[in-house]
Amino acid sequence: MTRLAILLALVLGGCTAAAAPAPVERDRPTIVSLNPCTDAVLAEVAGPGQLLAISHYSQDARSTSMDPATARRLPATGGTVEEVLALKPNVVVAGSFLPPATRSAFTRLGIRVETFGIVGDVAASEAQVRALATLAGHPERGEELVARIEAALAANAWRGPPVSAILWQPDGIVPGRDQLVSELMARTGFASQSAARGMGQADYLSLESLLADPPRVLLVAGQERMQHHPALRAVPQMQRAEFAPNLLYCGGPTIIRAAQRLGEVRRGVAR
């Protein structure tokens, strides 16, 4: 073989190797996730080739709770039985609101179904991370993610007096005391003014009520007209800050980004 032929073979061989897909871990289950919150966790704790598909919500910038680039690299489904069956997973992971008929169909077809609910605090979220990592056969990856969550919380913890804050969510509602985001606010130095008013989960806060008793910090996580009303700019001593809606609903790696954003806002108030 000539020197040129040998060189060409090496170059082509290198290109082929680089393009080869990651090997599937045959001794661990393949998974289809139908829930954006479990999508985000499984994308971090599952091994190569295990996560066959995620929910279509995770490829929508408005609803995703995971890195958009990572979401685009994974197949997505609308959650129909036909779509999932074509992928031949060992396990389907879904939210607790999975329709009974859909669950029964998966069971009849011999596909294991595991459901996970909405987490209300950091401890529950870390337990869910560990459960999903164990399901995927990678408990060590779950521990790594939990360690990153704890590190983010520690880095953004506030040890001084809290400042009053309102988190104004999409549709003008506020979170309840037992919501994950409320715990994250407390840990990062905010006292919920909506809770102090006696407001609960998903209570509506009007612009008029907010202007009558403004907080020190207004975290805006919505695009309603009133949430960006010019009158808000005229409120003295009230700092407004954007808070991405996709940081509101999921735990797992979302906690890291939410804690970082809240810490950033809190440090800005201190200055």
The largest sheet, given as strand count, sense and whether it forms a barrel, is:
5 strands, parallel
Sheet with most strands: strand arrangement: 3-2-1-4-5
Structural class: alpha/beta
Low-confidence stretches: 1-21
CATH homologous superfamily annotation of the largest domain: Nitrogenase molybdenum iron protein domain
Instruction: List the quaternary state of the chains.
Output: single chain
Beta-strand fraction estimate = 15-25%
Shape: elongated
Tally of discrete structural domains: 2
Mean pLDDT: 90
CATH fold name of the largest domain, please? Rossmann fold
Name of the CATH first level of the largest domain:
Alpha Beta
Concise description?
The protein is α/β, with parallel strands linked by helices and 271 residues long.
